[in-house]
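Late entry, written up from scratch paper. The run itself happened at the end of the previous shift, but nothing got recorded in the book at the time, so transcribing now.
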Amino acid sequence: MNFEEMINNIKTDYKNIIIRLLFTVSLAITSLGYTLLNNYRGKVYNIQTTLDTIIPFNKYFIVPYLIWYLYVGFFIFYYSIMDDKRYFKILIGINVGMIISFIIFYFFPTTVPRPFVYGKDIFAKLVRLVYLNDNPYNCFPSIHVLDSVIIGAYVNRDPKISSAVKIISTSIAISIIFSTVFVKQHYVYDVVGGAALAYFMYFVCNYKEVSAKLACKMQVSSEKQVNVGEE
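Output as recorded:
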């Protein structure tokens, strides 16, 4: 990640960058659907697993849970400056992924019962604040996981980003994913659903590139098998 190059791009292409950043408004507009659906509408489903009963509540995981906002926001801003193709693919992936999630929320509303959070420390207060502002109904799939996995997928496959940054990005994404179950905002199936939807959106937005890589790998594998057979 070259911050000097970022600054140069801002200086030389700031008008186009501003125009590109305006498209992030689409995320705010799409997110309105989350608020509209995040309420009790009659029957709700509980998809708790045995693993969920084993996972303890941990208020300290509220930190990575909230870091999600910075993580997603930073890389959207970064790609608006450095790579407009990845930028728009990320916006499309997140927006369409959210719309698909909203359809699931409407027809298959799930809930996660929350524990009573004791304590006057900052972590307990932050958990209570999240609980207060986010009703426990839009659970499957997890939007936190959806966005984190989409961002992580693009960062990890970006040749311009260093290995160190990729490791940091992956670590943050994993901590965000774990946080969703440790602060009892989601169940395991919510995480699996969010990750599956994220990879589906990544595949759809990068169909040609992914197909070409798969075809290449299959060809190499086939050639190796032929060579082994000839030996």
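The chain has a mean pLDDT of 91.
(Scratch paper discarded after transcription.)
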